[in-house]
Amino acid sequence: MLQAILIDMDGTLCESEEVHRAAFNRAFVDAGLPYRWVRTQYERLLAVKGGRDRLAHYLRTEAGPGLTEDAVVLARRLHARKTAFFTEALAKEGVPPRPGIVRLMAEARAAGVRLVLVTSATLPTATALVNATLGPGGLEGFDGVATGDRVVANKPAPDLYRLALKGLGLPPEACVAIEDDGAGLASARAAGLAVLVTPSTYTEGADFAGAAAVVPHLDAPPPDGPVDLAWLGRLLAGAAP
To answer: Which among 7, 97, 123, 224 would be 20 to 30 A from 199, CA to CA?
Structure first.
């Protein structure tokens, strides 16, 4: 029986990666650094989950010679500025939720099915983005939050999903995860969860082997959707929706 839905944020709750990319680029300009991430480059860098880890990876492997500051230290400083720019942009523009997610969350609350946000982002970033997507206090609509700053290893490691399950006090067999990319899928699967994938604009056409199902979005037309609690219950039971 389905008792909880574990929901990824960026790309799953909303399409936010372009807002993130613009904020990273503003942070580079603010720091007087010559780096600019174009879309194709950022798509590749998204394989490294968590903004600070992504920055540190880039600075160590691709930024080139001439860095006068430790990559991890510089990444921490840049990420703080990026978060400020990201929050500023969200306050001005907002980010709409992906199709069907608000409906599904409302159905879950009404039925007593718990909701947990599971994101590689830090808590300040998650708070700003969820509130910009779902409205002020949007994070309060979740029964739990697992963020990348609370684990040692980010996605695709299973740590975030194990943290979420521990907080729920539930076995993975009672929950379904919703993700949009391969790293999230691998993370949830490694924690023993059945995973529904709804590809984002950055992950369309990727290989999602191991997913219990893949649909364009939660309001997809039959036979793939729309995804509701009964649909997820059948998915959890191993029956093709």
So the answer is: 123
- Asked if residue 155 and residue 64 are part of one domain, the reply reads no
pLDDT of 99 above 70:
yes
As a whole number, the mean pLDDT across the chain is 94
* Whether 10 is catalytic: yes
Task: Classify residue 219: in a domain, yes or no.
Answer: yes
pTM of the shown model: 0.92
Q: Which of 8, 159, 180, 181 is catalytic?
A: 8
Q: Are residues 45 and 108 in the same domain?
A: no
220 shares its domain with 125: yes
| pLDDT score of 161 | 98
Q: Is the dihedral of CA 210, 14, 30, 50 positive or negative?
A: negative
